[in-house]
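Ticket #4471: complex job returned nothing on first submit. Input attached below:
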Amino acid sequence: MAEELYTTKEAMLYSQRVAQLSKALWKAVEKDWQQWIKPYDLNINEHHILWISYHLKGASISDVAKFGVMHVSTAFNFSKKLEERGYLTFSKRDDDKRNTYVELTEAGTTLILEMNNNYHQTSHAILEGSLPLRDLYGRFPEFLDVMAVIRNVYGEDFIDIFERSFQNFSSSLDEPLAESLLKK
Amino acid sequence: MAEELYTTKEAMLYSQRVAQLSKALWKAVEKDWQQWIKPYDLNINEHHILWISYHLKGASISDVAKFGVMHVSTAFNFSKKLEERGYLTFSKRDDDKRNTYVELTEAGTTLILEMNNNYHQTSHAILEGSLPLRDLYGRFPEFLDVMAVIRNVYGEDFIDIFERSFQNFSSSLDEPLAESLLKK
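Support reply: We reran it on our side without changes. The output follows.
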């Protein structure tokens, strides 16, 4: 009984702690993100959709929704707007007739690369706030406990898409293509 | 030059990683939080204001805004609504005429205690998703790297208020007062 009570207390303290921490973290991230994309007249969901489509080299709307943590209707509606602006196209795939896929156009790809190129034009509080950790440990923190919790909440395929997009992001930053496209 | 390029790449990978992780974490937290407070006709900011006022035993609007990570006008407007519903009162303090303070009424205190009591009536995905970590390490994760980043972004006084409110939360969960108030 006493043990059970302790656990309830522990659970409540823990979940309120995560709630406050994640609210503070997200609000800072959101501000950085908004400042970065502001010159391009995009909201966070729109940029997220472009980012996912770019790094997954095309994605189904349901993958975009899942990985972008937004409703399917939100993913669809914002994708439509991006299509109207000429940044992506909708298509069906022969091996998967049920899902709708989005893929970046050349204009969409150029936009993503240009935004990456201008990343340092705005301030990034999270980055600044992480530099002391990088100095101390020799690298940026990995938030392994956050990753573990997210893996349990969103499932293995969320983490798979996550890692896949970051592998692509990492190699895309090495490609000289980025430079040449921007100089067009 | 090569070293600088590496750092830019590392910085971009890191900050996008934090962005995606914190969005996913926050969306799950937000869902848990909303489900928990739904029966009480409160939004997250309103509950957050009550929670802060309760645990700081009264707080200035600017402390509420700072610690609740919301605009001062948001903190003020939602506090007004909570005042209209009889959950809190506004006051000035003799030693600090410039700031407006909010304090819970008895109805507000009872509400907070009742909500704590009904915490386990709704599901908490974050809590569930953290249990494997608790099994493994013998306690819930502490997200020390997230705390360190937040300390650098929001400053030492944010962490001070954070720790103060959790010390109070922790001891309030031990008090038999909670039970007696609810049984009124």
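Chain A touches chain B through 61 residues (CB under 8 Å). Closing as resolved unless it happens again.
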